[in-house]
Amino acid sequence: MKITNRKFREEKLLQAEARYQAIVNAIPDMVFCISRDGEYLDFKGEYTTKEIVGKKLWEILPANVALLKQEAIAKTLVTNTLQVCEYQLSTPWGVRDYQARLVKSGENEVLAIVRDITEPKKTEIALQSLAQKFSKAFRCSPDPITISTLKEGRYIEVNESFVQLSGYQPSEVLGRTAFELNMWVNPSDRTKLLQKLQAQGAIRNQEIKFRKKSGEIIIVQVAAEVIELDGIPCLLAVSHDITERKQTEELLRLSAQRDRLLTETLMRIRQSLNINEILQTTVNEVREFLQADRVFIALNDSCDLFKMIAESVNPQYPSVLNWKKKDETLLQELRTKLLTDRVRVVEDITQTTVSPQLAALYQQFQTKASLAVPIMLGKELFGALIANSCAKPRCWQQIEIDLLQQISEQLAIAIQQAQLYQELEQLNNNLERQVEERTAQLQQKMQELQEINRVKNVFLHAVSHDLRTTVMGNLMVLKNLLKSGGLGTGDRGQGRQGGTRGPLWGLGGEGRQGRQGGQESNLSSLPPLT
């Protein structure tokens, strides 16, 4: 029985040795069995056993390598743990890199598996060089670069440019997501970015809005690709801040729109004298340009104090058109602020000091921010052009302030022109009325003159008729006398005596006959009186 058990154990041992020998033979690396004092006890590899077994480390290896291996052997036997050491050897194929992995195989011996790692080492060096180059590019890039997990967006690495742009220190960012830091202005942008990545494999020049630590909104142009780090899909993103460029583009757009609005306003003022139409169109277009909630024009009326004459307002907010206030203190405050500030800019009414009455006015019309410029006619305050933001406080841009100032100047011209037109129209009306009155008077005088002429003609006709009748009668009597010869035989005394008998007596006598004949001729040639 004991013999059978011994044989069984021997067979098992032989099988185990054969199995272990097969494993060793299957290992492509060189295998050495080395004693505590550095003697090679066994060997498997490219060389013959006689060349290796029985020799010391110092006989085969360079002194520095032999010392390194001896220290590793001692540490392996003391700690009973795996030890790894790397070294270089000169071979017929040049300098090669080797890695020795040592484990304790007996009380005073170790098993060393030596592998040629020249090619992996070169690859590692190349990767290290590439990693070093990437690290330098990552650190020195003027554009922010981030590496984050693809699934959650959790930051793994950020460069200095990201720190400067975002305002966050690395310790505040690493291990956290942009959502946790509230950096996404539009959270849906990340979903769209991932969808585009999945469809295209990479992203170029994607414009995204981010929020800095200070709360400032910036616009960045993002290029991103998916990479793997330790088997984890990650997102490598490079961002370029284009906020200033976008602001410049927006400024150019607004400038062009402002110039167009000013040109159109000037044309309306030149072509139209309907002041109400000009004012209403102006507030409509100014509100559209400013994207404000309310724009209106108030006139400084001595009777109604302040009169709202034109307004464009978002339907969500109350209108100021019907507002009238007889509070002289409040109105004087408004006048003073307009005349003192010239341009009154209020970005947040909660951060400015005003009277309780004015604060109540802001609250009544839900005003959060206000921009007001006076409309001046010479040195006189004629009114004001006012824009309100009712949804939230607002930072008014300089181009917006300039627009309202230029529009107010044009409105002053339009209002002054309308006043002059009204005065001219009034003068024309007065002149027309006076002309009508003078015309009526002249017509009346003409009628009177015609009547006088008619009466005169009637009178002259009557007088002429009477005179003609008398004269003709006398002429007939005279002719008859001449024909009868009665006037030619009498003497001078008889003539004087006969002169007492009628109006024509005394014309007789030879001395007067020529004159009598001449009178007859003259009388007969008189023109008619009628």
Automatic annotation (TrEMBL):
It catalyses: ATP + protein L-histidine = ADP + protein N-phospho-L-histidine. Residues 152-206 form the PAS domain. Its EC number is 2.7.13.3. Residues 520-530 have a biased composition (Polar residues). Residues 204-254 form the PAC domain. It comes from the Bacteria. Residues 404-455 form a coiled coil. InterPro entries: GAF, GAF-like_dom_sf, HisK_dim/P_sf, PAC, PAS, PAS-assoc_C, PAS-like_dom_sf, PAS_4. GO terms for molecular function: phosphorelay sensor kinase activity. Keywords: Coiled coil, Kinase, Phosphoprotein, Transferase. Residues 274-410 form the Phytochrome chromophore attachment site domain. Pfam families: GAF, PAS_4, PAS_9. This is histidine kinase.
